[in-house]
């Protein structure tokens, strides 16, 4: 599966959802999660993310490992998203800020 990681938090550009052929993305207040059961490992979403937040599970940086379980959990409770949403006004300011997990709204 592919995994949305820390840098999506408060960036949430949503470009990723437009290219997913199986609608595997689920939307929280300030983050998206991929359902690992739905994801077919096509990798199309990776280059679409302006925050470079999406990785294959096997290539997750060590400090992003916890996002594997988080995507699995949060995708189960959040609604599906398939359309582009307005980008948060301060998204570009948060792009690249490290360790945003404490800012994740669930
Ligand atoms: Fe969707 Fe492909 Fe990304 Fe998986 S890797 S979430 S199937 S676009
Ligand atoms: Fe997040 Fe990147 Fe998609 S910032 S919403 S994973 S385009």
UniProtKB/TrEMBL annotation:
Ferredoxins are iron-sulfur proteins that transfer electrons in a wide variety of metabolic reactions. Pfam families: DUF3470, Fer4. Keywords: 3Fe-4S, 4Fe-4S, Electron transport, Iron, Iron-sulfur, Metal-binding, Repeat, Transport. This is Ferredoxin. Gene3D superfamilies: 3.30.70.20. It comes from the Bacteria. Transmembrane segments: none annotated. PANTHER family: FERREDOXIN, OXIDOREDUCTASE. Residues 1-29, 30-59 form the 4Fe-4S ferredoxin-type domain. InterPro entries: 4Fe4S_Fe-S-bd, 4Fe4S_Fe_S_CS, 7Fe_ferredoxin, Fd_C, FdxA, RnfB_subfamily. Its cofactor is [3Fe-4S] cluster; [4Fe-4S] cluster.
